[in-house]
Design a protein that fits this description.
Length: 301
């Protein structure tokens, strides 16, 4: 089933896009990531311009996050107070990200910036996740995980609040700063930011593991909504046909992923996710050295 994407100026297989959306939804429900870290690179590999892929993926991530938040919220797995602070930071970060996006596109380097960010961030986070998963499976990381606390810099920040669901008494400036960083990345890369947010919540903020996934999805939901509005008003790179096809699969996939997450062993899930992240990072790294068939990218006006 071929479908024409007006903004991307490309005909694609609609069933393949729906399947990709379903995969994104499963990842969303399983790991608390929006799935854009995988959707955007795969769309780029498929021949869709990076700007359209990034803008459309961030829009689709919103739909995938809605069902995930509902599923985790019903089980008490969302810290709404922490989530609201990070959402405020994410909205601010989206504004900064929009300015950076327009700057890099104006100088003709946005495609390279998007690919390079994926290589650096996915490579680093993939290695950290893989190392912890292997250590836990070997029995050498369980004691460290049990003693996990927030970063010393977080403890030094003023004006502390109690986040009861997360079991924390820290300054709201810490999650606010994390939210700003995620908002910038969401705007530039079309990701929900979960693959950055989940490790930050665990290792920097020291949040309880049972609320990390749901709170991450809560943050992703609102930040990607803000990012979609920013893209629509500034870059005009959101392809509504592409987003619709991705949403069809992702809404169903998110429910399936959240059900699997309850039954599966977390260490194996982290190892699988780390493997996928590293493979995507390696493919993006190779893409930096390939000359594309079309050396110019046509952007919407």
């Amino acid at each position: 089933m071929d479908v024409y994407l007006p903004i991307a100026n490309l005909s694609v297989n609609g069933l393949w896009i729906v399947a990709l959306g379903a995969l994104t939804g499963v990842l969303s429900g399983l790991f608390g990531v929006g799935g854009g870290f995988l959707t955007t690179p795969l769309l780029i590999f498929y021949g869709i311009p990076p700007t359209v892929a990034a803008a459309s993926a961030s829009t689709q991530v919103t739909g995938a996050s809605v069902t995930g938040v509902l599923a985790h919220g019903n089980r008490g797995g969302v810290d709404y107070r922490m989530g609201m602070v990070m959402v405020a930071g994410g909205v601010i970060g989206s504004g900064f990200g929009a300015l950076l996006f327009r700057f890099f596109r104006a100088i003709g380097q946005i495609d390279v910036v998007i690919s390079a960010l994926y290589v650096i961030l996915l490579g680093t986070i993939g290695m950290l996740m893989a190392r912890e998963a292997v250590q836990t499976l070997r029995g050498t990381g369980s004691r460290q995980a049990a003693r996990r606390r927030h970063h010393p810099l977080v403890a030094s920040l003023p004006m502390r609040w109690r986040f009861y669901r997360s079991g924390l008494y820290i300054s709201p400036l810490a999650p606010l700063i994390v939210g700003v960083a995620v908002g910038i990345l969401t705007m530039l890369m079309g990701v929900g930011g979960g693959f950055i947010l989940v490790p930050a919540m665990l290792y920097i903020l020291g949040m309880s593991a049972n609320v990390v996934v749901g709170t991450s999805l809560y943050n992703i939901l609102f930040v990607t909504m803000a990012t979609t509005i920013m893209h629509s008003l500034t870059t005009k790179a959101v392809d509504i046909v592409l987003v619709f096809l991705l949403l069809i699969g992702s809404v169903t996939g998110a429910q399936l992923g959240s059900q699997i997450a309850v039954k599966a062993k977390p260490e194996y899930l982290r190892l699988i996710l780390a493997t996928v992240v590293l493979l995507v990072a390696f493919r993006m790294f190779l893409g930096l050295f390939y000359q594309p068939d079309e050396i110019y990218t046509v952007y919407p006006l």
